Amino acid sequence: MAKQLRIMIVAGEPSGDAHAASLVRALREVAPETEFDFFGAAGRLMRAEQVKKVVDSDQLAIMGIVEVGRVLPRFIKAFHALKHAAFELQPHAVILVDWPEFNLRLARALHRRGLKVIYYISPQLWAWRPKRVSSIQRDVDLLLSILPFEADWYKERGVTHVEYVGHPLAGEVKPRFSRLEFCLRQQLDPQRPIISFLPGSRLKELQRILPPMLAAVKEINHKRPDVQCVLCVAPSRTVEETREIIARQNGNMGFETLKIIHGETREALGASDASAVASGTATLEAALVGTPMVIVYKESSINWHTLGRLITAEHFGLVNLVAGERLVTELMQNDLTGSQLTEELLRLLDKDRNSALRQRLQEVAERLGDPGASERAARRVLEALREWN
Hints:
The chain is α/β, with parallel strands linked by helices and 389 residues long. Helices cover 48% and strands 17% of the residues.
């Protein structure tokens, strides 16, 4: 093993940025004698781990046909910048993290030029566009999966260079303080029910998902005035953005008691009796904390009708995919209304229903693997580097 390793690492979304940052940290911990030089597409957390920024991935966390189309030159510029950096610096390996629409194209361009490509957080081809598995076979030297059923899915389709390392959140998602302390900090009553709302980490998610959530808050306040509603703002979003959307929802009327939280999402989930969570990684965080939830999502009509038809998975929510059944209610697109969300959330406050779902969520948490996934991924990366160099 070389005493110095130059590694290119590319992530393009907040969750990928977090997983990539954990992997970078784990690589340094597993191989303290090695001097690492990391560069690539880096978000806030990766930059905090001293990954040199070729591209600022915070500027590329965009989804949807129309949205991406509007900033397509930005993506093209980023693609060429990363490709040029890889060819010039010749890293010992390139680690691509999630973000398949961009990273699969980058894998092809770099692998053609003889660079070794590791794909971490394997693309969810089992959910949509499964024919792209051929590009994984051709352009990826090592595929690391984080969901328990993924490795078998890939192996059944001829991808033998895949390994399951477990989910990096397993064993890592823990509230920093108790329900009682959270309530004291946020001036809430621990004796009254708490429902939290997580509208997503992207601006477009906030703009589309928050309004029906706010409609549910109003209805819950009317039907169950004893319930305390908490709105969790993602780290990548600001309270100001959130308040602007609330202000447009009937001029703030009816939201006087809505508690807005920033930077304490896991603590809010841990303190909540029920939660409405935007489909994505946050649903697994809620499951790992053990909070009964409703999974929600809303896209633009063009994205939903164009991209939605490509989805082949039986469920949208990661919790349900890991469970292998519709364990948690999903309210997608037109089904996401204030009234339906209110109904489902209030049902979760039923003591027996709540207790039963918490028990099933514990089973989902156990299926995500043992703690230490980032370390296992790091060790496998180092093994591959030993084989290649």
